[in-house]
Design brief:
With 334 residues, the chain is α/β, with parallel strands linked by helices. It has eleven helices and ten strands. The chain has two domains: 131 residues, ATPase, nucleotide binding domain (Nucleotidyltransferase, domain 5); 173 residues, Nucleotidyltransferase, domain 5 (2-Layer Sandwich). Helix content is 45%, strand content 18%. Bound molecules: 5'-O-[(R)-(carboxyoxy)(hydroxy)phosphoryl]adenosine.
Length: 334
């Protein structure tokens, strides 16, 4: 089954063709980073307008790269939640029209389910159950993946996402947007004990919930204090300390969840999964605990259409299709 899949939830427009949920025939991505970087973050209206300009072109390019025609497409899929609403609406509306024009089913996909499914593309033998930490710019969720479409949130951030913590910290350190990669790069030259950063605790019930806003504020305060007093800021040390603390918070909860559920397999997904410290810490923790680790290659960690096409296949098998009244949603539970 060949699915033409679209992703437009934030600042990447993507169109892909995926066969039977596991084989990527085309994966076209247009990144809007250049449009947003002067603002230091994603401007929702600019994002939506840019999706509108390029989505049709990307669809044509995906078909061409895949070496297929419109008639070879068996279904159309799109991210329908969560995300910047104007941005998601563009993808949903385009996918709806494409499904109508081609006379094929329309499959709505939850963005985080898509990130999790990036692992199916990278690791053809991976099957549920497994525990998956989904870490991106807008979401941080620990998920019990019992089946391809049977999953529940074990814990999540109560405030900022891990990626947001990196992005805001990078901004105050003058490292540009998006900030996760520059922080990661800089951290490799720094002492990860240079700054004693807080590990915000969530003490009221769910041990798997997380909080990143206090950590972000601590980094902002350290940077502002250095600016105001004229004292030098050890940027590599701050970046390394931040990566260490974020990684410790994420890795410990994920490993605890895998132990509790008795799952052998641990997966990581989302843009922040590109972080070298987080990857290295997961490798060490899984080796120590005797669990298998799955982290997609960098290209599949960030937003892309192939992951939507992968998850869409399993949603289709489960009968989760939509009619032409499908709407887009800024927020939605998994
Ligand atoms: O999954 P993604 O591409 O988009 C969303 O769905 O949000 O994730 C983007 C996030 C941004 O916050 C970006 O700074 C972060 O992923 N990121 C990283 C790294 N590369 C990207 N964070 C930490 N270390 C990295 N190497």
């Amino acid at each position: 089954m060949r699915i033409l899949a679209f992703e437009s939830s934030c600042d990447e427009t993507a169109a892909a063709v995926v066969e039977d949920g596991r084989k990527v025939l085309a994966d076209e991505i247009f990144s809007q980073v250049k449009l947003h970087e002067i603002y230091g973050g994603v401007v929702p209206e600019i994002a939506a307008r840019s999706h509108l300009e390029v989505i049709s072109l990307l669809a044509d390019r995906a078909l061409k790269t895949a070496g297929v025609t419109r008639r070879d497409i068996d279904a159309v899929a799109c991210t329908y939640a969560p995300g910047l609403i104007g941005a998601v609406l563009v993808g949903v509306n385009f996918a709806k029209s494409a499904a109508l024009a081609l006379g094929v089913p329309l499959i709505p996909v939850h963005h985080i389910r898509g990130h999790i499914a990036a692992n199916y593309l990278a690791f053809p033998d991976l099957e549920p159950p497994f525990v998956c930490l989904a870490i991106s710019g807008g979401n941080t969720m620990l998920v019990d993946v019992r089946g391809y479409t049977d999953m529940s949130v074990l814990g999540q951030t109560r405030d900022d996402a891990a990626g947001e913590c990196f992005d805001k910290s990078a901004r105050v350190m003058g490292l540009g947007y998006p900030g996760g990669k520059p922080i990661d790069d800089l951290s490799r030259q720094g002492d990860d004990r240079a700054y004693d950063l807080p590990r915000p605790a969530v003490n009221d019930g769910n041990p798997f919930d997380m909080s990143f806003s206090g950590l972000k504020t601590a980094v902002v305060n350290i940077a502002h204090h250095a600016q105001q007093t004229g004292q030098p800021l050890d940027k590599p040390g701050l970046a390394a300390s931040l990566c260490r603390v974020v990684s410790e918070m994420l890795v410990s909860r994920t490993m605890d969840a895998a132990k509790l559920l008795g799952y052998k397999n641990v997966a990581v997904a989302g843009g922040v999964a590109a972080n070298s410290r987080i990857r290295a810490d997961f490798e060490a923790a899984c080796e120590k605990a005797g669990r298998a680790l799955f982290v997609p290659p960098l290209r599949l960690c960030g937003d892309n259409g192939a992951m939507i096409g992968a998850q869409a296949y399993y949603e289709f098998l489960a009968g989760h299709t939509a009619d032409s009244s499908l709407n887009a949603y800024a927020t939605m539970t998994l």
